[in-house]
Specification:
Distance between the termini: 38 Å
Shape: elongated
CATH superfamily of the largest domain: HUPs
Largest sheet: 4 strands, parallel
Number of strands: 15
Strand content: 5-15%
Radius of gyration: 27 Å
Helix content: 40-55%
CATH topology of the largest domain: Rossmann fold
Amino acid sequence: MSDLHIYNSLSRKKEKFEPLHPPFLGLYVCGPTVYNDVHLGNVRTFTSFDMIYRYLVYCGYQVRYVRNITDAGHLTNERGEGVNRMESQAKLESLEPMEVVQKYTVGFHDVCKLFNMLPPTIEPTATGHIIEQIDMAQKLIENGFAYAINGSVYFDVRAYNEQHKYGILSGRNIDELMEGYRDLDGQEEKRNAIDFALWKKASPAHIMKWKSPWGEGFPGWHLECSAMSTKYLGQQFDIHGGGMDLKFPHHECEIAQNVGVCNHQPVRYWMHGNMLNFNGQKMSKSLGNSILPIELVTGNHPLLDKAYSPMTVRFLFMQSHYSSELDINIKGLQDAEKGLRKLLNAVKYLTALNQDTIAIDEKTEKDIIELCSACKESMDDDFNTAKLIAALYELATHINVFYNEGKQANKISEATRTLLQQTFATYVFDVLGLKEESAAADNTVLDKVMQLVIDIRKQSRENKDWATSDKIRDTLKDAGIVIKDSKDETSYEIS
């Protein structure tokens, strides 16, 4: 398959990837809470795991990719208390809660398509798995790790910690957690302040509620992922992913729930994407630097100089390792735009290359073979897209040289040319998930206009009217269009 190594958040080290049942592989990613527009940080997380999914498939694994939809409305307080945000949004918009769910689920899917994310193989919803969540809560009560009181069910963290270890993923200490929650209100019915809700009793005014052995209520946030991942991927599966902000308490609580029911760790490899900043600061509404994906694409935000295409944003995300913090700024967006164009132009030139080997340049041949190998080595190194892109840039330079020398890849063997073509296109499109965005109609119009300009410039050069020729070239360059003269023809590219 592949010599893939993954940084495991559980062991806190990079490990050789050894799936449970190769070539089959289970991948679970915590999906969106659909009570509001998906934010840019979410897009980075889902784009990262889209890339990971793509590469696993490229490596030959048969991946069952599960990404859930949180539509039951989870709570503002991390311990399972507070305001139900789904119902709050429903009241704010004068909609039924499931209308809110539908509205923002459709919006989430639109964003996924915009950024060229592949759909998961299964996309379960929390509301569609209430029975499974009730069943898991009952088993936790039977196993002594949960208790029912006043119509609610809580996970007993202390009882669990006596037999297992709570905090193994985040490194949290149970006594320190007790200190942190000691003075919080609303803890009267819990045995311990750090216990979290598996099921909450619904008030008469609560809209989203279901019947259970403990009365009408609704599930806790953490329970849904444990129930759905177990149902579709089994009691133990390969990879569980999500944003860094989910490591604690969400993923920590998932581990406790699954171990409490199954008596063993549920996941082999825990993976977390890191946070997104803008101009060196955490993105937030209070700072005015919180940008929605559609605002970035339309340019409709005061901090932006212009609109940036979805593929430019995706490429910007790929230029950093998924586990590192990424700072978005105007220069970075502009550089990503240029870098993306360089790769897409190289793909176009690559398809036009002819093979007429005259004399193989051993250094060029060796460089290209090594760079092609470096692409796979980079991705096998914990999906290091930053290193992959560096190798693709170097390959693009070779492709440009071949193209400018009359579209002749005559310094390398036919086998190496085939390797170059397959490697470059595969990693740009299939692994990084990039694509050409310009509309076909716009391309046709631009091509016709540019052909006319090129013909005028060619006539000027034939008439030795260098002033006109240079003026055309320089004016186009100022507009971001580069004229490229080769032995056989003149072409253009958008820089």
